[in-house]
Amino acid sequence: MYFLHYGDMTDSTNLIRLIQEIQPDEIYNLAAMSHVHVSFEIPEYTANADGIGTLRILDAVRLLGLEKKTRIYQASTSELFGKVQEIPQTEKTPFYPRSPYAVAKMYAYWITVNYREAYGMYACNGILFNHESPIRGETFVTRKITRATSRIALGLQDKFYLGNLDAQRDWGHAKDYVRMMWMILQADEAEDWVIATGKTTTVRDFVRMSFLEVGIDLEFKGEGVNEKGFVKTCNLEEFQLPIGKEVLNIDPRYFRPTEVDLLIGDASKANNKLGWFPEYDLKGLVKDMMQSDIKLMKKQQYLEKGGYKTLNYFE
Ligand code: F7E
Q1: I want to staple 95 with a disulfide (CB 3.0 to 4.6 A). Which of 80, 83, 183, 308 is the partner?
Q2: Phi-psi category of 159—alpha, beta or left, where left has phi over 0 and alpha has psi -120 to 50?
Q3: What percent of the chain has pLDDT over 90?
Q4: How far from chain centre, in Å, is Cα 64?
């Protein structure tokens, strides 16, 4: 049976009471203020929820004498590598965080290691590279792109705006990564793991791939803040836009004070020791997200045309 409790990472007494009541075998700490850009606006809250919040969970388990019962998964992140010191990044690559989010996560990483070593707790870090899916938050770049592409293809939106198109990320499918979180807690020994696909792609190419899913080939002209994306060809009857139509502009407001330019992970340890390999490649991920957003936007299109009167009837 599932039960959703109220919880707050900034409230120790709440966390202690919950853990006492539930007596969990496993805790997956995915709770965080997880938007890198937003963390520059609310750095103190980010440190509290993402950094000290992790300590609160670890210490609650210790305080309640559950060190030998409760296994803890800590959602660490490729953002720890920040200004990368090595390519590709492994469990041994030194960290160089580049945002308040990453600095908070660095504290969480080390306090997890420390509680494992100090109190013999089964506490692990999964250093997960970017993982996406159709239910990704709308302000993260992949979902922002697949939503906008779908709306533009359906004629619901004219164009959209992004920041740094040159940033490179190692994007995987969240389904593969969540399976791995579970595998990490079933392993014989508590360890830290890098989870990645080993391939990196620019934001610009993610845009290109999303439009190709609706048969639209884009071309990019201009440089820096003046770069723009235009429709080159439309190859599907369903999604026809005027050739040469401008669909993408740059808005410098989306640039970050300090950027993480390139991430690419080496998950050899997880491949060899746990037998984990991703089932989705980037094309499969983009397809999954695009199919879902096209469906969602078609529903919105229907609603915008006044179909709301009958929508419930069809659902
Ligand atoms: O940005 C660039 C942006 O916000 C990816 C979080 O889940 O993964 C995520 O962090 C890249 C960056 O993810 C826009 O500058 C360009 O270089 O999708 P994102 P993130 O910052 O990599 C890691 C693993 C986490 O742990 C985090 O919690 O895309 N970019 N234009 C943009 N990004 C956004 N959000 N919006 C833009 O318009």
Answers
A1: 80
A2: beta
A3: 94
A4: 32
Q: What is the mean pLDDT of the chain?
A: 96
Query: 3-class secondary structure for 41-93?
Result: CCHHHHHHHHHHHHHHHHHHHHHCCCCCCCEEEEEEEHHHCCCCCCCCECCCC
Q: Which one of 79, 115, 149, 200 is the catalytic residue?
A: 79
Q: Is 256 in the pocket of ligand 1 (CB under 6 A)?
A: yes
Spatial separation of the C-alpha atoms in residues 209 and 189, rounded to whole Å:
40
Cα 310 from Cα 315, distance rounded (Å): 9
Both tokens of 258, joined, read 């300090």
The response to whether residue 194 sits with its C-beta less than 6 Å from ligand 1 reads: no
| pLDDT tens string 131-181 | 999 999 999 999 999 999 999 999 999 999 999 999 999 999 999 999 999
Alpha-carbon span 162 to 225, nearest angstrom: 10
Distance 126 CA to ligand 1 centre (A): 19
Catalytic site includes residue 146: no
Taking only the tens place, the pLDDT of each residue in 91-102 is 999 999 999 999
Q: Is 99 in the pocket of ligand 1 (CB under 6 A)?
A: no
Q: What angle do CA 122, 123, 129 make, to 5 degrees?
A: 140
Does this model's pTM top 0.85? My answer is yes
**Under a CB-based contact definition with an 8 Å cutoff, are residues 72 and 57 in contact?**
yes
CA dist., res. 230 & res. 247, Å (int):
6
How far apart are the CA of 285 and the centre of ligand 1, in A? 16
Q: Phi then psi for 217, rounded to 5 degrees?
A: -95, 130
